[in-house]
Design goal:
Shape: globular
Number of helices: 12
Strand order of the largest sheet: 3-2-1-4-5-7-6
Number of strands: 7
Bound molecules: S-adenosylmethionine
Distance between the termini: 44 Å
CATH topology of the largest domain: Rossmann fold
Largest sheet: 7 strands, mixed
Order of helices and strands: HHHHHHHEHEHEEHHEHEE
Structural class: alpha/beta
CATH superfamily of the largest domain: Vaccinia Virus protein VP39
């Protein structure tokens, strides 16, 4: 917790890691009881405690949402089994809180989620990722918040996901947007996507689950295959490992292996979300 995390991100981590028998009010008390002399850190803990007390119900929902998706992979679970388990988990999570199911630190609040979505959209725009004639594939699209935000700036955007409940919510959210489409995917590869058919591939907080299922590297190669020459892939969070160096090392190795150049290497460009950004570009094109 002492790594400068925003209060919302700290609450999301508490929702995942704190013993569930300790309620929000008790956690707030623990935060206030910590004897911290460093004034900014003390103020931060006070803010954590205040938010826990004032949003106890939302915190409980975030906890229930987080509990739907286990990040442990039992021995003997194959990639397909992991994908199916995650799909069921995200189905349940979406039914509790659509906003928290895609970003726990939103605390289930659509306005907070929209603020992060807008930050991600402007970052993508600054990277030259968007464009009126571009076709984008969004891997692990969730509830379609990025499709909704990006549609006016894109030629066409296709969101794919393993969770039918997520896809159903995404379709409702983007109803009437003619340049947006959603479909279920196998989760193990992109064999139903044609070679060199997209200008960009997006994966916001989905690679950690590809990693969990053991299909992250295969997807990286698949992304290189489905991108047109010069196309870009934006991976926001590659894993939930605590080592940024390990993620950077993997991305650079995979980029070399699949003929891609790393343009952004693990920056944390967002103020409302602690996601780490990677951007790679397929060789060729103009
Ligand atoms: C944390 S959510 C993020 C959703 C969305 N990208 C966003 O940021 O709003 C992760 C999403 O990845 C999806 N997912 C998990 N494993 C996947 C896989 N193997 N293939 C495609 N999507 C997957 C989940 O169903 C879920 O919708």
């Amino acid at each position: 917790m002492a790594d400068g995390a925003a209060v919302d991100s700290a609450l999301a981590r508490l929702a995942v890691f704190a013993d569930e028998s300790i309620g929000a009010a008790q956690l707030a008390g623990i935060a206030l009881d910590l004897r911290v002399s460093h004034a900014p850190r003390r103020r931060w803990l006070e803010e954590v405690a205040t938010t826990l007390s004032s949003k106890a119900g939302a915190f409980d929902d975030v906890r229930r949402t987080a509990a739907c998706v286990s990040h442990d992979r039992p021995d003997g679970e194959t990639a397909t089994m992991t994908v199916e388990r995650l799909a069921r988990g995200f189905d349940r999570a979406a039914a509790i809180s659509p906003a928290a199911s895609v970003q726990l630190s939103s605390l289930g609040d659509e306005d907070r989620l929209a603020a992060t979505t807008a930050e991600i959209a402007s970052w993508l725009e600054r990277q030259g990722f968007l464009g009126a004639h571009k076709h984008i594939l969004d891997i692990g699209c969730g509830i379609g918040r990025l499709e909704h935000a990006l549609a006016p700036k894109m030629g066409h955007i296709v969101g794919i996901d393993i969770s039918s409940k997520m896809i159903a919510i995404a379709r409702r959210r983007c109803a009437g947007l003619a340049t947006v489409a959603f479909r279920l995917t196998s989760g193990v590869d992109l064999t139903d996507v044609a070679e060199a058919s997209f200008d960009g591939a997006l994966a916001v907080d989905s690679f950690p689950y590809l990693m969990l299922a053991g299909v992250a590297e295969r997807h990286f190669g698949e992304i290189a295959r489905v991108l047109r020459p010069g196309g870009m892939a934006a991976v926001l969070n590659y894993s939930y490992r605590t080592s940024p160096d390990a993620d950077s090392c993997d991305i650079n190795r995979l980029a070399r292996a699949f003929g891609m150049a790393v343009v952004v290497d693990g920056e944390k460009p967002f103020s409302s979300w602690d996601g780490r950004a990677f951007l790679v570009r397929r060789a060729g094109g103009t």
